[in-house]
Structures are given as C-alpha cells and as structure tokens.
Amino acid sequence: MTNKLKGSFTLPGESGYEDLTLKMAQKWGADVIRDSDGTQLSPEILEAGYDIYSTVCIIRDHNDWIRKHPSNMQQTFLQSMPKIAEGDFLSIHLLDGYFTQQFEVNQSKESVELWQVFDRTTNMEVPKRLWNYEKELDHVVIKTTEPFHEYTVNFLAYRKWEEINMYNHVTNNWTSDHLIPVDPRSDEAQEYLYKWMDNWCKEHPLTNVVRFTSMFYNFVWIWGSDERDRNLYTDWGSYDFTVSPLALEQFKKQYGYELTSEDFINKGSNHPTHMPPTKKLLDYMDFTNQFVVSYGKKLVDLVHSYGKKAYVFYDDSWVGVEPYSKRFEEFGFDGLIKCVFSGYEARLCAGAKADTHELRLHPYLFPTGLGGAPTFSEGGNPARDAAVYWNRVRRALLREPVDRIGLGGYLHLVEDQPEFNDYIEKVADEFRLIKSFHAEGKPYTLPYKVAVLHSWGHLRSWTLSGHFHETYMHDLIHINEALAGLPVDVKFINFDDVINGALDDVDILINAGRAGDAWSGGDNWEDDRVISLIFRWAGEGGILIGVNEPSALNGYKNFLRLAPVLGIDIDRGSKVCHGRWQFTVETVDGLIPEGAGVKGKDHVFITDGKAHILAEEGGLPTISIHDFGKGKGIYLSSFQVNNENTRLLLNLMLYAKGDLGKALYLTDTADTECAYYPNAKRLVVMNETDRDAETSIKTSDGDIHVALKPFETQIHELS
Amino acid sequence: MTNKLKGSFTLPGESGYEDLTLKMAQKWGADVIRDSDGTQLSPEILEAGYDIYSTVCIIRDHNDWIRKHPSNMQQTFLQSMPKIAEGDFLSIHLLDGYFTQQFEVNQSKESVELWQVFDRTTNMEVPKRLWNYEKELDHVVIKTTEPFHEYTVNFLAYRKWEEINMYNHVTNNWTSDHLIPVDPRSDEAQEYLYKWMDNWCKEHPLTNVVRFTSMFYNFVWIWGSDERDRNLYTDWGSYDFTVSPLALEQFKKQYGYELTSEDFINKGSNHPTHMPPTKKLLDYMDFTNQFVVSYGKKLVDLVHSYGKKAYVFYDDSWVGVEPYSKRFEEFGFDGLIKCVFSGYEARLCAGAKADTHELRLHPYLFPTGLGGAPTFSEGGNPARDAAVYWNRVRRALLREPVDRIGLGGYLHLVEDQPEFNDYIEKVADEFRLIKSFHAEGKPYTLPYKVAVLHSWGHLRSWTLSGHFHETYMHDLIHINEALAGLPVDVKFINFDDVINGALDDVDILINAGRAGDAWSGGDNWEDDRVISLIFRWAGEGGILIGVNEPSALNGYKNFLRLAPVLGIDIDRGSKVCHGRWQFTVETVDGLIPEGAGVKGKDHVFITDGKAHILAEEGGLPTISIHDFGKGKGIYLSSFQVNNENTRLLLNLMLYAKGDLGKALYLTDTADTECAYYPNAKRLVVMNETDRDAETSIKTSDGDIHVALKPFETQIHELS
Question: For the Lacto-N-biose phosphorylase-like N-terminal TIM barrel domain, which residue ranges apply (chains A, B) (predicted)?
C-alpha cells in the first residue's frame, strides 16, 4: 500500500471530549471538525487548526418570532376522514384522525376560500353554497347531501411542530419546546430569517462552512392521532409541505392558472413520487424550486460575504432544493452532503453538480440506529455495522468519485470502541486511495450505455424517494442499487427525452415498475411516438430490459406496450381464456449465478412463442429473452438486489451483447466485484460477503487469482 | 331404509351387449336406455320395454350437403398474428399461427367487406383504401404503414371441422371424415336440416326422446398451428362461433346499427365471459338467442309431432340456447340434461326452468377420463372416481332437486367392475330417496337470502363459463361451489337488478372477482346509484362479503368502491406512501375451522382502523369483518373451495348474523354436512371425506350424534 493519505474526512467533535476529538481527528486523518444536533464545539476544538462545519436549520428555532407572526407557520392541505351521509345533512370535524400536536386548522378567510368539499361517491365537488365552516367547532357542515354518499373536506392546516423535531421528541423522548417551522414565503419572514442568518454568521467567526439542514421545506410527513396508524402519509420527494395561500396566489400570477386544494389532495392519494407526475404538479414543483433557489441563494451569498462556505445537506427539508434540477447550480453552494445507507445514494450525491460531494457514513455515532437496533450501546456491534454499510457504498464509490466522507453524532460514544475506530481508519484510508485512483482517470467500464426510463427521468436519478428501506417494495430501487456498482455508464431519462433522441447513445434500456406507477410510466405509454421509437431502437440492436410491469397501460392490444420486444405480456383478465404457450426452461452456461432468483408473477404469458425462457416459477416465466430485429427484449418478473442477482443483471447484459464469458476486468464469482483504473494501473478487488472469498479476473495481463478476507478490499498493480 | 325405489335413471345401452344392458338396467333401476356417440341400440334393447333416448347433433354429419353449399359452413372472426412494419409497407398472411385443418379464409366479397386492419400501436383503424387482399396468397397488403407500428387484420374464416369432432380426432385418434358444422342461419340450410330431422324421426320410430347435442353453435374453441400453443382461445359461454355476413346483416336490420369485426375481435381479447359484457355484446347475444330459440322451436315442434319428447344437452353446441334466458321456455323442450363434475353444475341444471332436469354423472363409461387419467382401463378405479364425483354433487342435490340421473359411454366397460356397479346402484338408490324427500317438501334452510352480484346476474347463475377445472382461477367458482350445498337461498343478480330493487329481500350480498372482470363488475361500479343502494342496504343490516377485488374500479377515492363497508381497500400504487394500520389478529371461538385458510393478497390495507382482522398472511389481512351501520362488511382476500373453507364461508355468515353456534340442523365438523326435510322428517347426514367421520347435529329433538364411513350418506328419522 502507498503512503498514507490524509484529509477528506469530517469528524463530529464534542465539547468536553477535546482530547478524544483531536486524537480521533489524527487517527482518521480528519481535516474538518463539525458539530451535530445536540453537540457544541469548545474553543479548544474550534481553534485546533481544523476547518469547522456548523449545522444550521434555518426554518426552526424561531418560536418567539413565529408566535408573534403565526401566519408564517408552514402549512399543508389535509383531507378530512371520509364520512357517509345517512340523511341529507352531514357534519364533519376536520382534524379527526390527525395528530393535533402537529396540525391546527388555518381558519383565515384566504384559507377557507381554498377549501373544497367532495362527494367521493360521484367524484363531484359540492358547491360552496351548500356547505359552511363552523369555526368554533372546527366543523364543516354540508347542508344538502345525497343519502348514502361519502363526503370529504379538503382544508388547509398549519403545521405547528417541525417534523424532524417532532419525530425525535416522540421517538427518542426529547422534551424541549416544540419547534415551529417558519415558511419563508412572505416578505416579513424572509427579512427576519435573513437578519437572523446575518447575525449567526457574525456570532460564529470560527465556522468555515455553514452546513444547511437543508433549506426550507421538509418532505411530507403527516401523522395520525392513533398510535396504531401514526404515519398517515410520508414521501421524501413530495411537495405537500410547501403550500400556503400566498404561494398559491403567486403561482396563479406566474403560471396563469389556479391550483385548487384537490390538485394536492387528489382524492386522498396526494401525489407520491411513485406515481407519474401531472403537468400541474411539475409546474408547482418548478415554481417552488424557483423560490427555494432564489431565496436560498440570498442566504448563501450572505454566508459567502462572511468568507464562509455554504454546504447543503441532501435530506430532511431538502424539498425544493432538487440537486438534479437545472437551477441547482444557481444556489452557489460549495458542497453537497448526503447521508448514505446504500450504494445508489452515493451515486445520487456523486452525480449532482457541486464542487464538493461529501458522504455522511453510517452508523451515526448514536446509541441506537435507525429501526431501533442498538449501535453504540449494549448489544450493538458498530464495527460490523460500519463494514456492512461500507460494503454497500464502496462499490458505488469505485464507479463514481466523491470528495469527502465523514461521520455524525456524539463522538464520546467511540471512546471504548477500538475495533470500530480501527475499522473507520481503514475505511478512511481506502476511501482516500480510491479517490486518488479516480484523480488519475476514470475506471474501465464496459462499452454499455444504460438508460433507466421512468416518468421523472434525470430529476429522480438513482433514488426513487428516499432511502432503500423506505422504497424496497419497488423493483427499480433494487435495480438502481445493483447498477450503482456495475461497470456500465448509467443515465436516467423520461419520456420526453426519448422523443428528443435520448436513445441515440443508449445500448441498454431499463423500464422497471408496477402498472401505472412513475417507474413503469403509466399514461406516458399512450404516446405512440415513444413506442415506435423504442421498437425502432430495439430493431436496430437495442437491448430492452423490462421488469415486473414495464410499459404497462390499459386500453391497447398489448397490456405491456413493449410486449412485441419482450415476447411477454401480462393478462389483466381479458386473456384468461386464451391458451398459454408450453415452454421448457433453457439453460445458458454461466448466465444465472447460483443463488440468483426472480419471484414469479401471476398472469405473465408468452406472446409469440419465441421468447427463450431462462427461468420459471410455478409454471410462469420469470426470466426470458426474446429476439427483436437486431436487438433483444429481456423480461424479469421482479428484481431483488443481492450479490447473486446483481451479477445476474450484469450477466444478462453481457449475454444479450454477446460478451458473456469474454469481457475483461470482471470477477468470476457473484460475491466479489472489481474495478480497474487504467491510468493508475490499479485493480481494486472487493469481497462483498462476510465470508472468505476467492475469485479470478481476466485482465490484459492474463488471469489474476485473488483470495479475500470477509469484506476485504485488495489493490493490485497491473502492468 | 325404506323400500327400494325404481326409475329416474338413464342407462347407456350397447348393441352386442344386450344381456348386460338389461341386467344393469335392472340393477340400477333404469327406466330409460340411451345410445351414445359411437354406440347403437339393437332391436332387442329397443323393444325391451324401456323408454329410449337417442342423441342427435343436428349441425354435423352433413358433409355431402355442405360441400355442395359451402357458404353454409359455420364461421368466426379471427385476428391475424400481429406484425410490426419496418418500412412503409407490410404484407400479412392471414392464417399464420392458426390450425389450418380448422379454418379457411372466407374470401367472398361480403366477407372481405367486414374485414378491418388496425394499427395496434395507435389503436386506429387503417382506412380500407390503404390495404388490399391478395386472394391467391391469403395476404393482406397494407400499402401505407407507419414504420415501427404494429398491425393486425381482422378477417372472417370458415370453420371446416366441427370442434368436438376435431377434439376427438386429435386427442383420441379418431380417423373418420372431418365433420363440417352447418350454420342454420340461411333459408336453404334451415330447409335442409328440417327435412333431415323429419326424416330422422321417421327412421327412428322406437325413440321416445330426442336428445339434442345441443342446438347449433359450439362455444368458441380456436386452435393454433403450433402444438405448444394448440388452444388459442376457448370460452364455454362465448358467441364467436355464431357469426356470418348474413347474421350481421340481419342484426343490423333488427337493431338499427352495425356490428364490426372489431366488435368481436376486441383488440385480440375477444369477449370472454369473464369480462363484463358490452351493450353490443348483449344485443348480439340476444339476437342469436332469438334465432336459436325460433329455429330450435321448429325442430322441437317437429319432434313433438312424431309423439316424441325433445331434451336438450346443456353443453357442447349450447351457445344461443341459454337455459337461464327469458326465452328458454319457448323452445318447448321437455327436459334439460347436464353433465356434472361439481355441485354447482347440479344447481345450474336444477335452477333452469324445464319439466325434467337430468344429470349425466361422472365418470363416463370411457377407458380414459377427462384429463387423460385411466378410468375403465388398467390403473383406473371407477368406483372411487364415482364416489368422489357423487360426493361433490350429492350436497347440491340435497338443496335443490333434479328429476333424473344417468350415465353415458360404453356399457361393456362395466362388465368386470362389480364394485363400480354396486356403487352406482347405491347412488341411484340414494338419489331416488333424496328425490322422494324433496317431493314431500323443501329442506330446511337458514333464513338467509344470499345474492351473488356480478355483471351477468341471473343469465350466468352458478357457472362462470364451463366446468370447474376450466375456471378454477376465479374465486367466484369456488364460492359458487361452496354455496351449492349450503343451507341458504341463493340468487344471482346483476347491477341493473340492484337498481331495480333486488337487494330488498337479500340478507347477504357476495361480490367476488378480480378488478375489471365480470365477476367483480368492472365499469358497472361507476354507477353511484349502485354504490349508495348497497351503502343503504348494509347500513340497514345487510352483510356484504367481498372477495379478492370486490367492487374494484379506478378513478375514485376508494379503489374498492365498497371500501367503506368493508373497512378494507387495495392500493394500486398511489397509496404506497400512506402508512398502514397496525393490527392484531382477533380470535373468535368456532369461527375459523381448523384447516381453513385464505391466501394473502398484496397491497390490501385497512381503511379506518375499525375492521376486525380474523386472519392474516405475511402481515396482510386475509379475513376481516367491519361494522357498517347495522350491517357488516366481510373481506376475504381469496377463496378456495374445500370442506374447511366451505364451512368457513357458512360460519362467517352465521357469525355476521349472530347465529354462530346457535343454528339448528348443522353438523359440528367441516368434513360433514347435513340437510333436514321437515315434511319428510328426515335428516340426511353426509361424510364428505374418504375417512371415517363423527359429528353432532343440533336438532329440535336435541343433539344427534352420528358416525359415518368414508363418503357415507346416513338418513335419520326425526320426530
């Protein structure tokens, strides 16, 4: 191994533990010390010669001010719990079922004007003259109902408890004042927050980097009154928490049309990221993004004026920040920080346009980890946790560089964790070494340009909506996680992109989702230009990989609109009397790794009898490949990421391209992966299991045999 | 047991086996002897004093005539296999992929006028001027195509091989002439067949009953060219095989609008019975039914004029006969014969309006049974088969009487089957005894009127479309089979019936199906009158049982339109970010029989937290009950019929009505059932397993304890 590199590491310092702070900074090669939620940095740390990060959550901790200016509280539309009329009159109490520590009804005139009452049995709005709001009781009374129809009220509620603060109170028994989130939409709020930020900068002369957590608006997180159903609605990518009468008024001025409460409530479904966005939603997101960038930039400029840098945390109140939007660079942020559990999150950070990309690794230095399991407390094994997380992230970092890594939390917790401390030292060293290889030139990739096609395209590259454990039910997050470390180029495109020529440089196109969802594409598949462009592209040699219900749409001959390419379709009921092709499973040497597997899906059928069935479950094809002109269609009835299935995905690409068993710089087992840096002449080989592993790699120097310890990284120099 | 009754039994006689015929007639108490496909009755049998049934399939065995009058061959619309244009020109060979021994293109002018070419990528018809038919090659050439769009041609084909005959040739290696089906739609065909029938009657003076097999049109059965995909499309209830240019011309005259080929082809889905019928389809079915009844009646009258009776077989070419239509009685048939594998088929026969209802029991006297397993040949066990089939049918016959039973096939096969012969003797005796109880008065039923709600209503009572093994993938056939022997009143209603007050006498409403299918109801759920009528009915005490995706429809707040009653809904993707209620499974004593079970269904969720979850699988509710006003909603995520689940269904009804553990005349184990005839004062108890069983029954005489041998029927006299 080369000489030890230093730097590129952010350490959470802790006052009262000055010696430990400086000792660990030395051991882990830190160049930056940060504070965390709940920790302070003492002068001894601040003045030790390290760069200093300080966290700022600009929209909370202003309770005195907001209590005097309550119309600046953040808001959201809510739908009352549904109620069925038994007669011709109905009274609905608005907040029934909601967590009243989080919400209160916005009773103002401009709020009530936005409310709507719906007969959900007919999908018709009840005219305003037929209902009224009884303020004292928080009741809406519908004066003329159809008996035995179901009614709901869309209303506007203030949010009186910032959700991250609320979560920590409820989950971790915090007891301080409930922090109220400020909406910076009004002039008075903007002036107040600007002054506050200015003052903060003055009071923190030793801070080099202000780390914003994040900007103004949290992802939506609506709580219920019942502990059996606390989480009513949450979506990391959704804009529900940005709304206010003022915002809607400004929207109308700018876009020339009005948004209604129902445009947000959408029959109670809201607009989760997992469903295809409507034109109105995209307009509203653009409108909000514009505001967040424009006011955000003022704050960033202010920070810069004090000679400090401004980084932004890519989580929590990140809504409207959109690091993959065209406006992101306008903020002027100096860095982007992402906390990562998974490889795709490392790619999400690495792929955004920013000067500095930094990863906050897991585990955080907390007694208890996410999901409630112990980390730095009795029963925890933080060194093993760190290895497992690093194992997920490492393969992504080999494909696309980031600039820095770091930790968060309470440093004192590592005092008696020598194994953890040694492991982090190793991780930091590995990270810096890999970074140095990237600095010399890109790693070798197969000559495959992979495009993932879904409704959001580039804007939702890599992530679906938040962390893996929040979106595991979608095949695409599994695909993305597999792709994050594969030696292929990846881009994310939407349906407009297809029409605008995005397939021109694409070798492999992936569409993976459930019928009607954002990932499959829903109504976007109505556009016959998209269909025929993909037919043409596949006919000319493109490889389509469809997972679960790709290109699914009702109303056409093929439920999977791309069925002619795949040779596979799915019966929605109307084909139940149509016979099914008999088939035998074909075996291709070296294609399906031992332990790989795809879950079967009901109602899948073979269309023209020409698909080669590579695997089946219960008589249903699960993996198939079908010729289409010079190209191919590959169908997978589902996809679950693990080492074996990740290799399966790669092997299917190699097989379809005629490269299976021939390509260089690939390990020959699913439990190991490698990356080759031609300029640095270094081959990095990883064991991705907690067992010993051996593998061989075809290189231009001939085959290289490697034996690896659990999770080990080895670096070999090639000639 | 009382004195042995005789009669009500139809025996298949066989010439050459006169002694056997008369011996078995005696043993089984037959009063009728019949011929079968492939058997003759000799004078010795014909003149032995028994009534004689003769089978007539009126539309086949006229090859000489049809070859001289080929335009009277039966026809069907077919869709060419799809093809993708690569340039601006496409040639499609029509019969590619079809079994050319079954089909030939109808090349006549009036046929080609009905053809349509579709761009299936856009769903648009290609104008007729842009394509032409090249007769010599059976090609349609599309002169102007959009590159990389998919095209199909709807065309009309003659059917040159009657499908039942074709099946027996191909499956059982028959080698005789291929019988060509005659379409009696034209005047010349009607005249010819009428004369033929007249002549037949003259030539068969000893025949008492002409058994029609059945009328004119077989259910659709389209074969493919490839043995791996022989069965392209089949549906026992579908009208595809009734079409012809003449029929469509007559339809237009009568209904004032034109049907196109696409009205039949429907993007290649056709119109399986399992999908909700369109208005056009219902019109066309009505039109065909009218013709079949009117010409059928002429033939029946002719038969009657010879002093013979006319029975109709409720299978094979039964299409257009529709024993549950309002016109059925107009035929003047004297009897209806149904072959039965299952209890619901016995109810299907029993429930139709006819003077005589007769069941053809299984196994048929054939060497090989349905599905290819041996029956009366090496390795077969016909006595056991008979017991299993009788076990299914018996419980239905206890609820609703039929008049006769009988067998079919080759009698010589029973020569060395004393066990089978004894068992049939027992069955015949049991049947006659049960029939005698019915004659004294109806069996006791619980005071529950059950209505099954689906798109077809009464017209498709009991059966979905054919036998159980053809429709096992639908929950409803399992429900129907369970209901067939339960002590409740059952009716089948459609959505118009609901609007017209059909719920007024209903205690329990069942809706069981997959989203969009005929059994769930599809677009019928758009009608808010239906929704609010069911809400009202349930609110006033009705018990709704929803299975799988009951009342499912996109576009509304609730995907299951009746979710407010059920307290359960299903997420189609838009609720994936909405939290799920935590629940614990509640146990109700005696409700769920040991061994009962319901398969879990993805995406099921609890709506208002008030549903009582009675069973779950993988964290998803599978059985739940929810209060709604004075009524209840019961949800089952699936239903598979067996003894335990049949009892589960009954128990859920009893529980919802407050009668669980209290009702009289029910066995206390799932493996046994009973029926009580108050007028006859007889309690019939059945063991429905192949093991010994014991059970207790609460009666007005107190508890009765019974021990039963495998499949045994016991009859107890009550005071």
Answer: 7-445
